[in-house]
Write a structure and sequence with these properties.
Radius of gyration: 28 Å
CATH superfamily of the largest domain: Intergrase catalytic core
Shape: elongated
Distance between the termini: 96 Å
Number of helices: 14
Largest sheet: 3 strands, antiparallel
CATH topology of the largest domain: hpI Integrase, Chain A
Number of domains: 3
Strand content: 5-15%
Number of strands: 5
Helix content: 40-55%
Length: 336
């Protein structure tokens, strides 16, 4: 039921819109006052500004609005570039289902249903999108934008750790048929136990007298990978990547000296791998990221010693990358 207005002419105004000291104000049920326009504005202008304000508030209250606010936040800016790109990718799938849903109407059962249906195509991607949506709702909950985080308590699918170990023969088979840029990237990934993102953004200024300085984008660990003859050879090969007369600040660069994008490099990697498959008859069914795992697996010593070189924050992380099958003594080989 509408309240009684003091000024009869105000009955032409939208509901919950009043004359303030200097402007028309809309006072939503949730509290507060939103300035619409000056008091000398026409009634049609007041209605226009009110509708715009209502739509804006309604949009911010949807999952689409919450995700948009998260993408504009300092929390999002603090994430690594690779994580930011992944979150934008995950948002496309999430928004297809939840775009217009009010944040407080999303319940755990809805997230479970999304997971079950998405998991038919890819359980791994379902888990990643669950984590992204949970991150957005956590951001909203902490700022009073939503009442709960509906992702909490909704179980992810169980994932098995990847165990693919790239043998020396497989590595050499691909390396033999790879283009120069893929050869350089392969060596950096293997010898430095480096991620693809850190390799593609590596600058020539990181090439120091005693080694290559790498600040891992995922863990923040800073290390100098000391020079070895093989590592120096990879950097010498990298110098041939730009065409004659062109200089680049990127170690792994295109012919014009510009940086490779993640998708562009993966396309080149896939093309070279297919060429090697046809030439050798080998499956070569490993990913570029598996080369980092090969490097960690090939490091001699204990897990703690491998961790020190890999730059992981915990031994558990290193253990997931240590994929080489261990050789142990049989019972009778220990007997004298």
């Amino acid at each position: 039921m509408s309240g009684v207005r003091k000024n009869k002419s105000d009955y032409s105004l939208p509901r919950r819109v009043y004359r303030g000291k200097s402007a028309y104000e809309w006072r939503p049920k949730d509290g507060g006052a939103i300035r619409l326009c000056n008091l000398d504005a026409s009634i049609s202008e007041v209605w226009y500004c009110w509708e715009k304000a209502v739509n804006s508030v309604n949009e911010d209250s949807t999952v689409a609005g919450l995700i948009s606010l998260f993408f504009q936040s300092a929390d999002f800016e603090a994430l690594g570039q690779e994580t930011q790109r992944d979150y934008h990718k995950y948002s496309k799938k999430v928004l297809k289902v939840f775009r217009k849903v009010h944040v407080d109407d999303v319940e755990p059962r809805h997230v479970r249903l999304y997971m079950d249906k998405r998991g038919i195509a890819s359980r791994v991607q379902a888990n990643r999108e669950h984590a992204f949506l949970s991150r957005c709702f956590r951001y909203g909950y902490e700022r009073g934008l939503c009442k709960i985080n509906p992702c909490q308590g909704v179980r992810k699918f169980k994932e098995t750790s990847r165990k693919r170990y790239v043998t020396d023969a497989e590595y050499q088979a691909l390396y033999s048929y790879a283009s120069a840029v893929v050869k350089v990237a392969m060596e950096l990934a293997y010898l430095c136990c480096a991620r693809q993102g850190d390799i593609l953004k590596m600058r020539t200024s990181q090439l120091l007298e005693n080694g290559i300085f790498i600040a891992q984008s995922k863990t923040g660990t800073e290390q100098i990978k000391l020079w070895s003859p093989r590592l120096r050879a990879a950097i010498e090969l990298a110098k041939s990547l730009p065409q004659p007369g062109v200089s680049s600040t990127f170690v792994v660069c295109k012919e014009d000296g510009s940086a490779w994008s993640r998708d562009g490099f993966i396309s080149r990697w896939a093309r070279d791998r297919n060429t090697a498959r046809k030439a050798t008859g080998l499956a070569l069914d490993f990913t570029f990221h598996d080369l980092k795992a090969k490097g960690i697996s090939d490091i001699p010593g204990t897990l703690e010693e491998k961790q020190a070189i890999s730059g992981h924050k915990s031994v558990g992380q290193t253990a997931r990358y240590d994929r080489k099958v261990k050789e142990v003594s049989s019972v009778d080989s220990t007997q004298k």
